[in-house]
């Protein structure tokens, strides 16, 4: 039986104020096993500790219970004391009668009873405690510091200057953190860069500091003294050993993106360094991913690429980028249905970028056909059937791979539907010819008037692969009476005849039946061919009409009447010649499989229209009659060819197909895409490479860096030829955009994907440092301690809509104002408001924007805002002496050396006006902003007009701080700030041994405090490194090997990976160095084999029994 | 010097305790930022100084209604009854202080002492005597429904329709009740009304401080509802809505209220009714405080309007949804006539008219009555309608 001594602390009146100590001593003394019980006013004091030591020896005690505060506070104190007196420290227990009893109760009797139970239970636990000896762990004296703002830099320098190695990891391309963005610092007004940059240089060049910038912690394993970490170095696409920071790449890069360092007040290039004094002083390329426009394009054209180059006037380069993926720049610049524009992110905030107009402009601008960069020729013979967009596209992409395919075309002209189906006023022949000539420049041979009757037969005549792109030419018929009358035409035939100068006879009154682009084309063609009155009859309403909206509008403008919800039922003629068209009115019923509402005739609503000519344009189907009867190529019941969706391969392996022959009447861009993909397949096939490998479509990037304020919501308007100019001719109606308009339009692009890989930087870099194929790299490091200094961000300004944030350009946050004040900022330190670059004559500074607002935002005080508001107001007054600075605040908190004096100075010397009250709204009246508030001191409601508003946004943990908390298993408070081990006594240590905290990742603080905390964290690291080895926590879990059934439940449960499975013995083993004694496994173990030392099942049940009075 | 009043006050714990007891529990929370005063509708009216943020501190110090000077007290009574209970301050307060509750506790004390506006006294009396604030006979309460053959509620019916007092008696506003009934019939919903057994929900007089009469009236309603086996109550007034959902449960009456806009949007979504007649007008929607801010119903009325073919829905850019400006009729203010130039409705109508709308759509009988009177007084050519009236017009046959 153990002899337990119980020492009860009064903690001044903290405990004795609520607990009857006398009664406590009396009751505890009676408890079995208690050999001594005594109380004292402050047991943690020196005399108190002496009492414990003396009585321990005197009474030969072998178990000690100190009933006082939480073990978090003084367990170590008393363990040390008993150890000095010769007792194993793990035989000591703390009974917490302060935090868990006296502080939270006010009924003395009940609190005393509870204290008795707590102490008795602890005595029971003490009775069964074993003497434990902690294992010794060697310490790896290298420190890892995460985050290289001022906190990380300071900690790194302190540790390194003490002679130990440091690994410093920074997420962004340069060290320096937010402090590098600041102008001057309060209260001394030192220039932030002047005091920081020397430190940055020192850290960057320190022989003991290994710097990883543009890098993130990927994984950490091991435990205090011996961590293993994996660090992901993100690909910067620039060889930092070669880059000398000369900045030659900067001006040539065409991609403009929001500049994070200037807090989005300016733009930077996709190749950038955050600021000229960056450490390391090298460039980084920002590649975000594939933009949505490119993903939306069936041919995968690098849309953002040519748009960016066009914005810089680099039209030749832009056209080259376009032609990488699509040879029909001129055609698609006019008639593409532009799926890219539907996905354009600009479209979420107004009009999408007018991508098609940009494409057209660059094609029109660059009429010289460049010399092709021909590859090594390949000898394989390939036949392509049909010289439409699909066949020509396939030929082009094969030619670019070195093949010399032959294109067979039945007609005497080249271009397929582009030439026969699209009228000149939409696609001038000359412009079509430009694209065809470009394709031909690659050595593509086209044989016109060369109809192929048996494509499979070509394979026996030396052709190794065939691409079928014979289009869709069979006209659909209405199936009504009178279709064979003279004067009834079909759309494609009609257009072909007009386009190929075999003009059909067109009467004065023309009706076109249908609602697609061909119907509109036919109607407008008829109008230009002498018809006096042209109408379109369409069976659904405008909403369902498939034709391009712009084309419909133009047709109406030209005087074409559209009769909606009507369809012909018979053509009535005289002497075989069409005279009248009988129609019926329709109504819309339930939606059909296309999602459009199905038209149904209204009985008895028939009417007739007098007509001379009708053009029926209701669609076509593929013409595959030329395939031999016993063809092995599979076809669908609609008479189209069947191909593999990805490879465009038919059921005959050497035969590929695409375009309208497969799809039925479809868009040009899909025809081009089919040709392009088929070329990839044919090349792979001929080289014996798998057709499908790595051919998945990329996902569009979602994380898009939007500009701070989205302006220019409307696109540039294209010029159209006037109606009089259009009459009776086929001149192109759409005149496109001017060069100035094109540049402005291209600048509307958000540059979603970042770098466009145009290669302009490669050309400019004399050091040959650009590496577009660079990949992320994961490096491993071993360290003994980790300092987390991952910093803060400002609460997003858009979250306070009532202050006009994100809506009004001149409402900015504190960091943005710092950039406006900074000599290295977007205005070189001149205070100019963002909207019109005028000097603001009155600025409103609003405090507590997001802070101290538990109902809507954050409950805590962000601590630094009062002071930086004062600094902002003062600096503004210095720069703009006739300006007025008004600070709206509810309290002014200036606790700090020289802070109050600084605050007074802003009022006395600079006459900054302080209004006590929280504004409710910021409104806009004309050019001015108006702050709505009340001055609570005078009790006057106020509307304060001003030119600019600066919001002191709350300080929140950085995203990295959030992410690392999970990876490192460091506890945070509910706002995401790291928790320290003890708020007063261990402020720079986390609860996880080996992790130390510095800077705003722990809580908002200013620079002096941050630096002090960083040095303190460094001191703690050095304290650890000063010992060769450290003691491991002995209260870990032990496994009863006889009871363990090897179920491995605990292996999955353990959050610290402290367990391994011994395959041979079929039991689990503990790695004591990794075990944190959390007890998860004890709860998980079904057999009770997992037991925590000095907290075994017997102890717990004895404690419970005592509390229950058993 | 003897006739000079001593302005140095003393803290009065008795008044403080009384106010806290009556519900001013949030008074201690306030940190005096004053944001409430510039979100208060009186800020936009601009001609009456109403320093909302003073009330919590005056409560804690026990200074509300502490003066013994009659004239002073009369001024204070006027001030205390200036709050229209729109809760713009509650919505925007960083600490969630419920200032209207503080004022209600002050009003309860004033009512207990009989020191409150005469017009309100008469309204309270009328509600006590005939169950409605207009003093109309109880027997004619269901008369509006006669021409439509609306049945009396019985337990086999799906819904009790509770039209509120003003739609029951007022010629103009009763068109809302009629439209509501016709939409219900159109959708094939089985419903009935209580008619003579229905009393005022009591919301306004409770907020005006008449707690006792509120309790009596509310209990009468609860008893009537319980006796006829009411499950779900359809209401035209968001004021009835908050009272049934938040206040009747305190008195043991748990009925599930639904506002007409919520219920009719459900009917549209389920395909029970389909607005298919075109309503080619520009309509601006005014969020009633009690339906929007206080009940969180913002989308349903808008969804109904958006579903009407031809209707173009407009918004008051800076003052819609939770930032909507009160019509000025809440918390008993409907029956208090403030001088010209001190009326919220004038400001609100201007905001609504400035959108270029042809029709103002509301979803509350108080707003409807206020706006109808205001457009007449201001001689503005604009139509004011309840959402249900517009919906009814867009249903064919």
Q: Strand sequence of the main sheet of chain A, in spatial order?
A: 10-7-6-36-47
**In percent, how helical is the residue content of chain A?**
25-40%
Count of DSSP-assigned helices of chain B = 18
Q: Strand tally of chain B, please?
A: 8
* CATH architecture annotation of the largest domain in chain A: 3-Layer(bba) Sandwich
Question: What is the annotated CATH architecture of the largest domain in chain B?
Answer: 3-Layer(aba) Sandwich
Give a description of the structure.
The complex is a heterodimer of chains A (1110) and B (397). Chain A has 1110 residues and is α/β, with parallel strands linked by helices. Chain A folds into 8 domains: 4-127, Rossmann fold (3-Layer(aba) Sandwich), CATH 3.40.50; 142-226 and 959-1030, FAD/NAD(P)-binding domain; 249-287 and 761-781, no CATH class; 292-368 and 705-753, Fumarate Reductase Iron-sulfur Protein, Chain B, domain 2, CATH 1.10.1060.10; 382-472 and 623-687, FAD/NAD(P)-binding domain, CATH 3.50.50; 487-619, FAD/NAD(P)-binding domain (3-Layer(bba) Sandwich), CATH 3.50.50.60; 792-957, 3-Layer(bba) Sandwich (FAD/NAD(P)-binding domain), CATH 3.50.50.60; 1037-1093, Alpha-Beta Plaits, CATH 3.30.70.20. Helix content of chain A is 29%, strand content 21%. Chain A has 33 helices and 52 strands. In chain A, the strands form 17 sheets. Chain A has a 5-stranded parallel beta sheet with strand order 10-7-6-36-47. A 5-stranded parallel beta sheet of chain A has the order 19-18-17-20-32. In chain A, α13 (355-365) packs across α24 and α14 runs parallel beside α22 (668-687). The longest helix of chain A is centred in the N-terminal third of the chain and has 20 residues, at 108-127. Chain A is elongated and about 135 Å long. The mean pLDDT of chain A is 94. A 4-stranded parallel beta sheet of chain B has the order 2-1-3-4. Chain B has a 4-stranded parallel beta sheet with strand order 6-5-7-8, with helices on both faces. Chain B folds into 3 domains: 13-116, Fumarate Reductase Iron-sulfur Protein, Chain B, domain 2, CATH 1.10.1060; 119-265, Rossmann fold (3-Layer(aba) Sandwich); 275-393, Rossmann fold, CATH 3.40.50.10700. Chain B is α/β, with parallel strands linked by helices and 397 residues long. Chain B is globular. In chain B, 43% of the residues lie in helices and 7% in strands. The A-B interface holds A 802, 852-857, 890, 916-921, 923, 932-936, 939, 941-942 and B 31-35, 37-39, 43, 46, 49, 51, 53-54, 92-96, 318, 323.
């Amino acid at each position: 039986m153990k002899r337990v001594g119980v020492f009860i602390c009064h903690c001044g009146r903290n405990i004795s104020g609520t607990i009857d100590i006398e009664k406590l001593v009396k009751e505890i003394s009676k408890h079995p096993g208690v050999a001594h019980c005594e109380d004292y006013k402050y047991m943690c004091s020196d005399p108190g500790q002496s009492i414990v030591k003396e009585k321990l020896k005197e009474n030969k005690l072998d178990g000690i219970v100190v009933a006082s505060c939480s073990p978090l506070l003084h367990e170590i104190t008393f363990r040390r004391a008993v150890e000095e007196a010769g007792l194993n420290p793990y035989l000591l227990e703390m009974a917490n009668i302060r935090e868990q009893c006296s502080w939270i109760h006010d009924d003395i009797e009940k609190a005393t009873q509870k204290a008795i139970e707590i102490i008795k239970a602890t005595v029971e636990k003490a009775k069964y405690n074993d003497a434990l000896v902690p294992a010794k762990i060697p310490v790896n004296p290298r420190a890892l510091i995460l985050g290289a703002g001022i906190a990380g830099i300071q900690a790194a320098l302190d540790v390194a200057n003490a002679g130990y190695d440091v690994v410093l990891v920074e997420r962004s391309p340069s060290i320096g953190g937010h402090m590098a963005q600041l102008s001057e610092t309060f209260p001394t007004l030192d220039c932030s860069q002047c005091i920081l940059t020397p430190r940055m240089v020192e850290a960057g060049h320190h022989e003991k500091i290994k710097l990883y910038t543009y890098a993130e912690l990927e994984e950490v394993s091991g435990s205090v003294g011996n961590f293993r970490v994996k660090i992901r170095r993100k690909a910067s696409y620039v060889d930092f050993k070669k880059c000398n920071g000369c900045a030659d790449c900067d001006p040539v890069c065409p991609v403009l993106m929001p500049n994070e360092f200037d807090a989005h007040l300016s733009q930077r290039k996709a190749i950038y360094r955050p600021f000229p004094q960056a450490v390391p002083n090298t460039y980084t390329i920002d590649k975000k991913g594939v933009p949505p426009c490119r993903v939306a394009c069936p041919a995968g054209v690098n849309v953002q690429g040519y748009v960016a180059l066009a914005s810089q006037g680099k039209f030749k380069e832009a056209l080259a980028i376009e032609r990488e993926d699509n040879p029909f720049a001129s055609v698609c610049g006019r008639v593409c249905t532009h799926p890219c524009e539907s996905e354009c992110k600009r479209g979420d905030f107004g009009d999408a970028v007018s991508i098609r107009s940009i494409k057209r402009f660059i094609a029109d601008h660059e009429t010289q056909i460049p010399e092709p960069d021909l590859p090594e020729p390949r000898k394989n013979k390939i036949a392509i059937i049909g010289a439409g967009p699909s066949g020509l596209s396939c030929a082009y992409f094969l030619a670019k791979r070195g093949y010399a395919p032959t294109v067979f075309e039945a007609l005497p002209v080249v271009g397929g539907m582009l030439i026969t189906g699209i009228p000149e006023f939409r696609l001038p022949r000359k412009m079509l010819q430009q694209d065809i000539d470009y394709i031909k420049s690659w050595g593509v041979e086209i044989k016109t008037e060369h109809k192929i009757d048996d494509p499979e037969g070509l394979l026996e005549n030396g052709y190794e692969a065939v691409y079928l792109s014979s289009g869709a030419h069979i006209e659909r018929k209405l199936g009504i009476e009178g279709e064979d009358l003279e004067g009834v035409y079909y759309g494609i035939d009609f257009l072909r005849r007009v386009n190929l100068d075999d003009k059909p006879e067109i009467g004065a009154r023309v009706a076109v039946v249908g609602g697609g682009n061909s119907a509109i084309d036919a109607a407008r063609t008829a109008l230009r061919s002498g018809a006096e009155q042209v109408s379109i009859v369409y069976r659904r309403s405008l909403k369902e009409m498939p034709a391009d909206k712009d084309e419909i509008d133009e047709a109406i403008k030209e005087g074409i009447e559209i009769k909606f919800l009507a369809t012909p039922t018979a053509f009535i003629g005289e002497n075989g010649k069409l005279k009248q068209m009988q129609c019926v009115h329709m109504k819309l019923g339930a939606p059909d499989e296309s999602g459009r509402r199905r038209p149904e005739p209204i009985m008895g609503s028939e009417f007739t229209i007098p007509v001379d000519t009708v053009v029926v344009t209701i669609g076509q189907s593929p013409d595959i009659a030329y395939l031999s009867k016993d063809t092995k190529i599979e076809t669908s019941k609609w008479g189209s060819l069947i191909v593999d969706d990805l490879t465009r391969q038919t059921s005959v392996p050497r035969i590929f197909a695409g375009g309208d022959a497969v799809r039925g009447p479809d868009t040009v861009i899909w025809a081009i895409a089919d040709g392009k993909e088929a070329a990839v397949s044919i090349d792979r096939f001929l080289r014996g490479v798998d057709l499908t490998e790595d051919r998945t479509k990329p996902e569009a990037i979602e994380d898009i860096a939007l500009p701070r304020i989205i302006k220019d919501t409307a696109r540039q308007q294209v010029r159209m030829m006037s109606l009089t100019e259009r009459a009776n001719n086929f001149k192109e109606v759409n005149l496109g955009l001017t060069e100035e308009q094109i540049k402005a339009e291209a600048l509307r692009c958000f540059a979603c994907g970042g770098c466009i890989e145009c290669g302009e930087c490669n050309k400019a870099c004399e050091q040959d440092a650009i590496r577009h194929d660079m990949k992320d790299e994961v490096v491993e490091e071993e360290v003994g301690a980790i300092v987390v200094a991952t910093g803060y961000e400002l609460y997003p300004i858009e979250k306070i809509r009532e202050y006009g944030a994100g809506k009004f350009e001149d409402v900015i946050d504190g960091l943005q104002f710092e950039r406006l004040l900074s000599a290295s900022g977007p205005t070189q330190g001149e205070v100019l408001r963002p909207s019109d670059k005028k000097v603001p004559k009155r600025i409103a500074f609003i405090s507590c924007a997001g802070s101290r607002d538990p109902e809507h935002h954050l409950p805590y005080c962000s601590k630094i805002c009062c002071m930086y508001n004062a600094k902002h107001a003062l600096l503004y007054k210095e720069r703009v002496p006739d300006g007025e600075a008004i600070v709206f605040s509810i309290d002014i908190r200036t606790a700090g050396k020289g802070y109050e004096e600084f605050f007074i100075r802003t009022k006395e010397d600079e006459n900054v006006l302080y209004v006590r009250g929280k504004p409710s709204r910021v409104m806009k009246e004309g050019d001015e902003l108006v702050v709505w508030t009340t001055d609570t001191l005078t009790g006057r409601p106020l509307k304060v007009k001003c030119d600019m508003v600066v919001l002191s946004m709350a300080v929140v943990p950085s995203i990295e701080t959030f992410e690392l908390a999970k990876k490192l298993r460091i506890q945070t408070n509910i706002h995401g700030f790291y928790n320290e081990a003890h708020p007063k006594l261990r402020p720079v240590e986390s609860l996880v041994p080996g992790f130390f905290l510095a800077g705003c990742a722990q809580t908002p603080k200013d620079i002096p405090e941050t630096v002090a905390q960083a040095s303190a964290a460094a001191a703690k690291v050095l304290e650890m490194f000063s010992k060769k080895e450290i003691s491991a926590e002995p209260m870990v879990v032990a496994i009863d090997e006889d009871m363990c059934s090897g179920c491995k439940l605990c292996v999955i449960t353990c959050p610290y990976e402290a367990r391994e499975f011994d395959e041979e013995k079929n039991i689990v083993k503990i790695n004591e160095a990794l075990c944190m004694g959390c007890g998860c496994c004890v709860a998980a173990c079904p057999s009770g084999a997992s037991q925590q030392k000095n907290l075994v099942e017997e102890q717990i049940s004895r404690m419970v029994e005592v509390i229950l009075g058993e | 010097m003897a006739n000079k009043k001593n302005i140095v006050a003393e803290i009065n714990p008795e008044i403080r305790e009384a106010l806290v007891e009556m519900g001013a529990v949030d008074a201690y929370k306030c940190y005096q930022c004053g944001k409430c005063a510039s979100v208060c509708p009186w800020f936009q009216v601009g001609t009456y100084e109403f320093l909302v943020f003073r009330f919590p501190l005056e409560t804690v110090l026990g200074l509300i209604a502490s003066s013994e000077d009659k004239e002073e007290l009369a001024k204070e009574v006027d001030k205390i009854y200036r709050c229209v209970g729109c809760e713009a301050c509650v919505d925007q307060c960083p600490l969630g202080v419920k200032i209207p509750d503080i004022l209600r506790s002050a009003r309860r004390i004033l009512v207990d002492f009989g020191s409150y506006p005469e017009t309100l006294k008469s309204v309270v009396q009328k509600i006590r005597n005939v169950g409605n604030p207009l003093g109309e006979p109880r027997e004619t309460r269901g008369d509006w429904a006669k021409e439509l053959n609306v049945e009396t509620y019985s337990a086999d019916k799906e819904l009790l329709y509770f039209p509120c007092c003003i739609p029951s008696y007022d010629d103009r506003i009763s068109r809302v009740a009629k439209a509501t009934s016709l939409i219900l019939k159109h959708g094939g919903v089985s419903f009935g009304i209580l008619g003579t057994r229905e009393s005022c929900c009591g919301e306004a007089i409770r907020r005006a401080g008449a707690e006792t009469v509120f309790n009596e009236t509310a209990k009468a309603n609860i008893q009537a509802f319980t006796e006829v086996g009411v499950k779900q109550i359809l209401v035209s007034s968001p004021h009835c809505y908050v009272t049934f959902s938040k206040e009747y449960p305190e008195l043991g009456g748990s009925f599930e209220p639904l506002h007409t806009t919520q219920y009719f949007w459900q009917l549209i979504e389920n395909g029970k009714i389909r607005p298919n007649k075109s309503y080619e007008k520009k309509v601006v929607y005014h969020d009633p405080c009690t339906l929007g801010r206080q009940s969180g119903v913002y989308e349903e009325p808008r969804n109904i309007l958006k579903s009407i073919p031809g209707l173009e829905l407009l918004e008051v850019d800076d003052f819609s949804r939770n930032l909507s400006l009160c019509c000025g009729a809440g918390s008993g203010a409907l029956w208090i006539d403030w001088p010209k130039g001190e009326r919220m409705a004038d400001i609100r109508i201007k905001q609504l008219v400035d959108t270029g709308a042809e029709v103002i759509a509301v979803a509350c009988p108080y707003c409807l009555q206020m706006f109808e009177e205001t457009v007449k007084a201001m001689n503005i050519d604009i139509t004011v309608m309840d959402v249900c009236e517009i919906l009814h017009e867009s249903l064919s046959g």
